[in-house]
Amino acid sequence: MTLWRNRPNRVHLSRRGLAVGTTAVALGAMVLSGTVSSVAAPDSTSLSLPASVSDVSLANERAALAASKTPMTVPSAGTTLVGFAPPAEPDVLDGPAQFRIAANLPSGPLGIPGIVLKAYKLAATRVAAETPQCKLPWFLLAGIGRIESGHAGNGNVDAYGNTRSAIRGPVLDGSLAGNEVIKHGNGYARAMGPMQFIPSTWAAWGSDANGDGKSDPDNIFDATYSAGRYLCAGVTDFMAKPNQVNNVLRYNRSVPYANNVLAWAAAYAVGVMPTTPIPEMSEAPSEKDKKSAKDDKDKKKDKKSDESTTPSTPKSSKPSTSKPKPPPTCLGTICLPPGLIPGQPAPKPKSKSTTPAKPSASKAVPKR
After folding, report:
1. Which residues of the chain have pLDDT under 70?
2. How many domains, in total, are found in the chain?
3. Low complexity bias located where (predicted)?
């Protein structure tokens, strides 16, 4: 016992000192673990938990926090997203692509919108194949389209030829001068579409021109083709001089209308405005105007008959050797050069009547 107490290398610690030392070691371990965790996870959203929470609870909280986060990938400014395309214009998606025609076609003569010009020419070509005897030119359809709707509102159609806004004429109830009274259903009719068809006429002549399976008066291709079919029904040589005005009157029974259409058709045919102004549309002629026009016509007729009865000075019986030039084709007040209308034959020159000389008796040819 004495020897053990006298050993110089033994350190004697009291119970209080041992408890203080154990507490200091525990606190140091906790500080060290917090420093390591802060270096490993620099996220500002890490939890600050009290020292009394167990290690298992701390691990569960951190796992739940990591699972709640959603990773996000932000593309750089020059990156193109795969499978993404900007939305197209609504009118391009209105129908199948096979019925679509480019809307940026070049304009035609005197500013005819390109897609409307395409409709006029396609209609004339198809009508010519079906009724070649009619010989309806595209510029006649253009003249009608110009008067009826200003070429569908200056080409206000989509890539399929459908008018962007409905084109409707006035109500045909007789309230406007010159308009007929036409019933339709429980009310009065209105002309429809760029070629201004009456509903009953469209029911009889409306046709599908663009192959989409429906005939639509508000489609420029359907409307122009249907107008050509209607104009050529039972007609031969539409633009022949004696019949052209009457043929146009079948579309609208107004002489000013027919003269206006023919004048514009002539201008579109050559692509140049005439030096004389194109007659503008006017209101329906009154009874007084009709009587005055009839009197003028009768006076001209009487004057021609008087001239035919007046004896004329006999001309030389020598036939002319020069070939007469074919007269131009006139549309209303404007004349076109010959051969411009498709299928139009050149008019035959008028033969001058000459009195043949009587053969002498010595040169008479015996009858056989």
Report:
1. 1-95, 102-103, 178, 280-368
2. 1
3. 308-323, 352-368
